[in-house]
Predict the structure.
Amino acid sequence: MAPLLMLPVLPACGAAPPRGGVISVVASIMPLADWAQEVGGERVSVQLLVPPGVNPRTYVPTEQQRRAVERADVVVLNGLGLEPWLVAILEETRNSRLVVLEIAQFTGPLTERVTRRYRPLPPDPDIGPGTRQRAGTELSVPAPVYSSYLWLDPTSAMHQVDLIAYTLARVDKPGLSYYRQNAARYNGEIENLDASVFRQSDSWIERTVLVSNRFLYPFARRYNLALVLLSDPARRTEAAQAPLVLDRLVSMTADTRTLGADTPVLEVNPLAGATYIELIQTNVHSMTLVLADQ
């Protein structure tokens, strides 16, 4: 597999187009392609693999897209199992010059606090009955990854934009200053977007939502929403009147027959829209219609 990105310190130079033409960038999903274009500007040519609104996990790339990946200068993917088919292509590529940025390797925290367990010690005859024995070896227990949709948190998105800037500079060193300036400008737009979402969320009366899985976790953590799983009967009573939020990318398989007929249902499309900002704005508008006091 092509090597993952390491972030070097590169000299800042002018913004003339790179020698030999533009940088070829292939991105798995719309937010990553949008950020690569915003950062790369006229110095890059960006190809999106998964059409907006299509589930990346089940997508089947065309033969032309496979060849585009193998010929690219840079490939940007999310990771965390979102694009298993792209990982397979990268493992087979013979392009030794290809630079791969797997976003999930550099962003976080992705999970709740990691818990620790202890391996029990063997019985000790010198310790009397009733004496509690501390384990001898500490074992790290990985916390579950609640969501692969890292882009749903705008603060994480800004970090990802910076990662893309340094990735492009790895293959186009003279463009570092240009990429960094574009990243700073665009991150200012994301900051404004983040502030706008907070203002809209102030009107949300309902702060708890039902979900079939924790796909909304990055967004919920940022904007103080409580997620209650449909599969968690212990908490369902506290969310009896909460709206149901569905992931439009995923076929709905959870049992919703026990929900009341008047339960509001909202579909969130994590890959809607032509741009990242449009994606967030569209979904927040839909959520406001359901969660706000109308």
User: Anything to note?
Assistant: Residues 1-15, 126-136 have pLDDT under 50 and may be disordered. The chain has eight helices and ten strands. The helical segments are 30-40, 63-71, 84-92, 154-171, 176-201, 217-223, 233-236, 276-291. The beta strands are 23-27, 44-48, 74-77, 99-102, 115-119, 137-141, 208-211, 226-229, 244-247, 265-268.
